[in-house]
Amino acid sequence: MRLPVKATHQATREHNVRLVLRAIADMGPISRADIARRTSLTRTTVSDVVGQLSDAGLVMEIGRGPSSGGKAPILLQIPRDARQLIGLHIGDEQVRGVVVNLAGDIIHRAQHAVHGRDGAHALSQLDALVDELMLAAGTPPVGIGIGTPGLVDTQAGVVRWAASLDWRDLPLATRVADRTGLPVYVANDSQAAALAEWTYGRHVEARAMVAIRVGIGIGAGIIIDDRLYQGDGFGAGEIGHTTVVDDGPPCRCGRLGCLESVASLRAVLERVEGTLHRWPGTSELERACAGFGAGDPAIRDAVLDAGRHLGRALGGIIDTLDIRYIVLVGPMSLFGQPWLEAVRSTARRSALPLLAEGTIIELGKLGPDVEELGAAALLMTAEIGLSQAA
Q: Does domain 84-194+370-383 have CATH number 3.30.420.40?
């Protein structure tokens, strides 16, 4: 039996730094005293942490705020353009990347197409994209963060298994680091999306979060105690390959009836393939969104059925984790409030009522760049000495 141990000084320091940084990012400009009140840290601890962050160039004083009777407080904020980071997302049809500053503002974005399950082609396009973004950054960036499908050992930077790209035990971080000479960090794309919403989404009311990414695949990222929870085998949140329909449609993983096979964007597009030609758009997703907005019954049925399947899965997550803040991100969120309501109503019927009534389920705030921003957030926290793995 492994006995619990007292938190180390380093773990306590990392937690305090995360609290202070998030307070400044969410509510800055803000004074040291207000940070202490918001975080319940002592003023001495806040001052020590602010000093460390200031020495690292991550926090700056910008002048004094209004006085409430005493000496006017000095206000702090994150210097947006002090450093640049590169965030990448490897998808089924393209690799996308951004150059961002410390506040998550996108300075440059680019994308390259990839061919289906051709993992070798995806790697070649990733290399080209990295080269392009490093040139766009101008000054050498802090490093590179990557969000990718599949099971990812974040500590080693190894993609253990990605069905959509036929990757097994791919040392992705080492490969990119050897080419660029930069620090590289890799996470599952759903976990990266959770980090993005947590770091940049200004969900100030959230104490913990589950972010569900619904696109060609489905996965969850879980934030607990200000950390990304990845599980013992780094697979926490792999809900897309949970069987939800006995003898259901075939899934990319080789089994039948997985959540991904009935609730993902791929499942919707396959179901309405014969009706998409009626609607305008340059992609299947654009045509599906156009038909959905116009009330096409086949498309609406497919989208709302997918939402209900996802809602049943969320009912289990609500009962298991009792995390009251759930954010939905990814391409399926483009179907908007009707899809969201199908997810919400089914989740609340599927979960224990006492838990469901206090649960907030909403769309994410960051749009289509969420995975890239999350990869950048992973890099930022790692490079200032914060461990994301719980």
A: yes
